[in-house]
Every structure is written in structure tokens, then in C-alpha cells.
Design brief:
Layout: E1 6-10, H1 15-26, E2 31-36, H2 39-52, E3 59-64, H3 70-84, E4 89-92, H4 109-136, E5 140-141, E6 151-152, E7 154-159, H5 172-192, E8 197-204, H6 210-218, H7 239-250, E9 261-264
Parallel strand pairs: 1-2, 1-4, 2-3, 4-7, 7-8, 8-9
Antiparallel strand pairs: 5-6
Helix pairs in contact: 1-2, 1-7, 3-4, 4-5
Bound molecules: nicotinamide-adenine-dinucleotide.
Nicotinamide-adenine-dinucleotide (NAD) binds near residues 41, 66, 118, 209 and 211.
Length: about 270
């Protein structure tokens, strides 16, 4: 893979964010700032990434962040610039699941606000502060052998969900907030395409992570069996499979792709039930 730059990974302490950090380290990244509200988990990921890194000058650090608080995001991005200088990739995986599954008429406003604060405010803040830095970075050739491809100042990958583009019963806080994540990604992609920055969204179905386990505990009727209904490949996605899509969108193999919602879903999107 062609991912030799520095990455800022939110939610890097667990699940998909952790898998993305480990994949980046394995595939040759030069540095990662693992940021998470759970600093101990971010530290553990940074240590694991260092242990498996293929780039001899690889460095990883952990830093505490609450993606929904502007001062916290500003501090983490400033730390990234101070310690690693350039931000080539931003992988925004911090996120939460619902606390209940209720029809719209009974949906809780406070739960709606919690999901909007985490996913919508978080995606807005992380993207806007990262893009402000990327915009000022030197343009690097996408491929020195093909000058026609122009230059890149960075690539941002946000975690959406299959529920960023369609709906399912009982999940209005999650669905509304993930639709907004996609809206932010698409707008950022258009706004910054001319600066050599790409912004994309990865949209998985159920992924086998701690978030899935927490969802099973609070969503009546959801278990490993029922989660598979509607997924033609008849299994859960793995965090590694999502990280493969993330690395593709970070690197130059996706140099003409921006503003997309990439399903990673075993066919769920084309076979909704
Ligand atoms: N697991 C799935 O089935 C699934 C499916 C589709 C989309 N997603 C999305 O993928 C992303 C990652 O999910 P995951 O399954 O890896 O979950 P996870 O719970 O394993 O990891 C999420 C990480 O985000 C961190 N986090 C949560 N709120 C934060 C905040 N305010 N500030 C900083 N860090 C915070 C947590 O501490 C945790 O380390 C989420 O956006 C989720 O909505 C997950």
C-alpha cells in the first residue's frame, strides 16, 4: 500500500480505529497520533503499532481528546502539528452506539442530542480543524512519474455507516447523525478538492467490535444471528476489512476518488431488508 505519511486517528483505542492504526503501521506509515477519549486504550494501540511497524522511522504517540469539544480537538490537532509536522491522513473513527431502539414517536431527545453531539459536532470539529492545517501544507506530487495527477495535501476518511444513506426502524439518533457525517464529508470534499485534499466516508454494516457488543446489549432482538439478516455474505464485517477500505482511501490508489460513501457491507446496501 502507498501509505507512507503521518496519520491522525480518532477513536484509535478500540475497534475500527485501532485496526486502522495497526494497518497503517504495518503498511509503512511514518507516524500516527492515536487520539481517543480513553487515553489508556490509545496508549496501548500506539505501543502495538510501534511493535509491528514496517517503516524504520515510524513513531506513534497517544493523546487524549473529546471530539465533541472544540478546545480538546484544537489541542490534539496542535499537538499533531508540533510533534509530527505534516498530517497526511485523518481517519475519524470516534463514535458511539444507541442506548435504546425506539420508534420516532417515543424517541428520546436527550439520546438524540448525545448522538448528534458525538457524531455531528465531532465530525465537524475534527474535519474543520484538520482541513485548516492540511490546506496550508506543501503540495506533494501524487505520483512523481505522472505529473498530470497533480499534488496532494492530505486525505480525510470519516466513519459513516450503511445507515448514513438509508434507514432502519428505531434508530433515529444514529441514522440522523450518520446522514450528517456523510453530508459533512461530501461538503468538505467539494470545498477542498481544489486544494488537493480528498474527503471520503466509509460505510460499514455491523462490524465485530466492542461497539457491536454494546449494541447487542441495548437493542431488543439484536444478536449475532439477527444482525446477519440482509447481509448476503452472511457474516459480520471485521475491523480489518474496514481498515483495508480506509487505507485505500487514504493512499494514492484512490487519487481520483473524493466525496464518496464506500459501502463495506457484504452486499447489505444492494439487498436491504
Ligand atoms: N461496529 C459497527 O458495527 C459499526 C458499523 C458501522 C459504523 N460504525 C462506526 O465506526 C466508528 C467506530 O466504531 P467501532 O465499532 O470501532 O467502535 P468502538 O466502540 O470499538 O470504538 C470507538 C472508539 O471511539 C472512542 N470515542 C467515543 N466517543 C469519543 C469522543 N467523544 N471523543 C474521542 N473518542 C471517542 C471510544 O473511546 C472508542 O475507543 C463509529 O463511528 C461507529 O459509528 C461501527
Amino acid at each position: 500500500m502507498d501509505v507512507t505519511g503521518n496519520a491522525f486517528v480518532t477513536g484509535g483505542g478500540s475497534g475500527i480505529g485501532k485496526a486502522a492504526c495497526l494497518a497503517l503501521a504495518k503498511e509503512g506509515a511514518s507516524g500516527i497520533l492515536v487520539v481517543d477519549i480513553n487515553v489508556k486504550a490509545a496508549e496501548a494501540t500506539a505501543a502495538e503499532a510501534i511493535a509491528i511497524a514496517s517503516n524504520p522511522s515510524f513513531r506513534a504517540e497517544a493523546f487524549g481528546i473529546d471530539v465533541s469539544v472544540e478546545e480538546s480537538v484544537k489541542k490534539a490537532v496542535a499537538h499533531m502539528v508540533q510533534s509530527f509536522e505534516r498530517i497526511d491522513y485523518c481517519v475519524h473513527c470516534a463514535g458511539i452506539t444507541v442506548q435504546s431502539a425506539t420508534p420516532m414517536a417515543e424517541a428520546s431527545f436527550s439520546e438524540f442530542q448525545t448522538l448528534v453531539t458525538n457524531h455531528v459536532h465531532g465530525t465537524f470539529l475534527v474535519n474543520s480543524h484538520i482541513l485548516a492545517v492540511m490546506k496550508t501544507q506543501e503540495l506533494k506530487p501524487v505520483d512523481t512519474a505522472t505529473p498530470y495527477l497533480g499534488g496532494t495535501r492530505g486525505s480525510v476518511v470519516n466513519l459513516g455507516s450503511v445507515l448514513a444513506t438509508w434507514a432502519a426502524p428505531g434508530f433515529v439518533p444514529y441514522i440522523a447523525s450518520k446522514h450528517a457525517v456523510l453530508g459533512i464529508s461530501r461538503t468538505a470534499a467539494i470545498d477542498h478538492a481544489g486544494s488537493g485534499i480528498r474527503v471520503n466516508c466509509v460505510c460499514p454494516t455491523w462490524v465485530d467490535t466492542p461497539l457491536f457488543d454494546r449494541s447487542v446489549k441495548v437493542i431488543p432482538g439484536l444478536d449475532r444471528e439477527t444482525a446477519l439478516s440482509g447481509i448476503p455474505m452472511n457474516r459480520l464485517c471485521t475491523a480489518k476489512e474496514v481498515s483495508d477500505a480506509i487505507l485505500f482511501l487514504c493512499g494514492t490508489r484512490s487519487s481520483f476518488i473524493t466525496g464518496i460513501a464506500l459501502p463495506v457491507d457484504g452486499g447489505h446496501d444492494i439487498c436491504r431488508v
